[in-house]
Amino acid sequence: xxxKPTEARRQLRQHCVGRTTERGRRRTIAYAQTVAQHExxxxxxxxxxxxxxxxxxxxxxxxxxxxxxxxxxIAVDDFPEARKPAYKITVDFGPVVGTLRTxxxxxxxxxxxxxxxxxxxxxxLGVRRIAGFxxxxxxxxALGPDGTVNLLAPDGDPPNGAVVA
Length: 165
Fold this sequence. Notes:
two-stranded antiparallel sheet, 165 residues, 5 helices
């Protein structure tokens, strides 16, 4: 988040807890709050998108700073070390990006149905450690009423590495 502050960054800072001047801590707190808006307690709380407030507007450059790419799932492994049921998923994002791995709570899908599936990933969010595993990208999906993730997928057969526009 370097460079000249944009209005979206200023608004994000307003959501940060505490009065700290340490940039990394401030960003971590904001990230945690953003993630918390998407957490669903499966089985006890229905997901109600109509109750979630609209997020602040962002500028075009801020949005287009995200590198959203299409890839193909080439491996799916169980992830018993994770706190919540999850898979370790390997995706081929084409010759420029290569192969990346992630942890995803998509156990509503059978492993065999994920293999070969085209998926969308945010590949430039940095690495996150999850139960000792390095998650290299964010697998994108839409939350269902029961909290399960419905993976985003393209129409047709665009090539691996295609940029989402």
